[in-house]
Structure formats: C-alpha cells, structure tokens
Design a protein that fits this description.
Blueprint lengths: L4 E6 L15 E2 L2 E2 H11 L4 E6 L2 H11 L5 E4 L7 H10 L7 E6 L7 H14 L3 E6 L4 E9 L15 H7 L4 E5 L10 H11 L2
Parallel strand pairs: 1-4, 1-6, 4-5, 7-9
Antiparallel strand pairs: 2-3, 6-8, 7-8
C-alpha cells in the first residue's frame, strides 16, 4: 500500500471542564497542541491537518503552530462536540487519501513512534481500522486510523468520535498496544495537576 495516509490533529475543543484552553497549556516549556502536532508530523504521514476553533482561540493556536508544515482548517461549531472536529478534518483532506489518522491535542505522551506504529500496521494489513489500546487493561483511546472507505460513515453527533464504526468493524480492526503512561490526557483541573506532577513540570 503506497497511497497517501494523512494525519489529523484535533485541536478545536473548547475545554469547558478545564476552564481554560487546554491546547495552550505548557508542559516542559511547550504547548500541548504544539507537542501533539510535532509528534504526528515526525511520524511521516503524507500530510497533517490541524483542526482549530474559530475566533480568537483559533488565532492563538495557529500562532503557536505557525512554523510547522500543517494544513489548517477551522471547525465552525466546536460547541457541538468532538464529532464536528472529525468531520472538519475529513473535509480538509485532499483527494486520493487512503486513510486518516486522528490524534488529540491533549494527549502529550503519545509519541511519534506510537503514531508511526499505527501507520505501519495499516501499511501491513490495509485494515479498515487501526486502533490503539493502552497497557495491560487494553483501554481503547486515540490515535485511531480509519480507511478512506469509512469516511462516509462519520455521521456521529456530540462529543465523541465514530464509535458506531468502531463497533461495526471491530472484528476487522488491527490493534496497536501502547504503554499505559501514554494514555494521560487533560479534561479537568485535576487531570492537569496530576499530569504536571507526574511530568515534573
């Protein structure tokens, strides 16, 4: 399989539970969104889309990513939930893409090697889904890769991804197991406090 696979960094969330834009929080002197975008870029996808919110927050996020080779696209209604960001990312992809790999801006310990493992498994298997699971418990969480023939099924609404596609195609999915430490994300002030304590920031 040599058709292009693109990465998509979902960075349009409004961080309601956190109370401040999580994308712009700094860990080790680098914002979470920049850290996430650099990790996806280093995995050597054919291209990478960054989905950002409208307005001032979107301008601020674009500014911290301005020197990176990203294709920016705006999610016009991030208030409707993560589902809108998925669709905005898909709409920004060029024609002829074989698959899209979705990563979240608030998972700073997912590395380029982790993203590359998902990409390589897709190259090997051409599975309709390549899903990540974390640790011995096998917790399923992004990054996830979807083959292009599934793009039309991104009909979900609300604050989640296409869980119905994952259920429908789970028997055909390929899985990458990642370390449990990479699962940490930021949704609440308590999450951020724990994460910065663990990271020594």
């Amino acid at each position: 399989m040599n058709s292009p696979v693109w990465g998509v960094v979902l960075a349009a969330g409004l961080s309601r539970r956190l109370g401040q834009p999580k994308q712009l929080l700094a860990l080790g002197g680098e914002t979470l969104v920049r850290r996430a975008a650099r990790a996806v870029l280093a995995a050597e996808f054919a291209g990478v889309v960054a989905v950002v919110p409208p307005g001032e927050l979107g301008i601020r996020i674009r500014a911290v990513l301005a020197d990176l080779p990203l294709v920016f696209t705006e999610c016009p209604r991030p208030d409707l939930g993560l589902s809108e960001s998925f669709r905005a990312g898909l709409a920004a992809l060029p024609g002829g893409v074989a698959a899209a790999h979705f990563a979240l801006a608030d998972m700073p310990f997912v590395t380029s090697q982790h993203h590359r493992a998902v990409l390589e498994l897709f190259r090997e298997t051409n599975a309709p889904l390549v899903l990540a699971r974390y640790g011995a418990e096998g917790v399923r969480a992004p990054p996830h890769l979807f083959r292009a023939d599934l793009f039309g099924g991104f009909t979900q609404s609300g604050d989640h991804g296409p869980k119905h596609l994952i259920r429908e195609y789970s028997a055909q999915a390929a899985w990458v197991t990642l370390p449990s430490a990479a699962l940490r994300d930021v949704d609440t002030p308590q999450d951020w406090a724990r994460l910065t304590d663990q990271a020594g920031s």
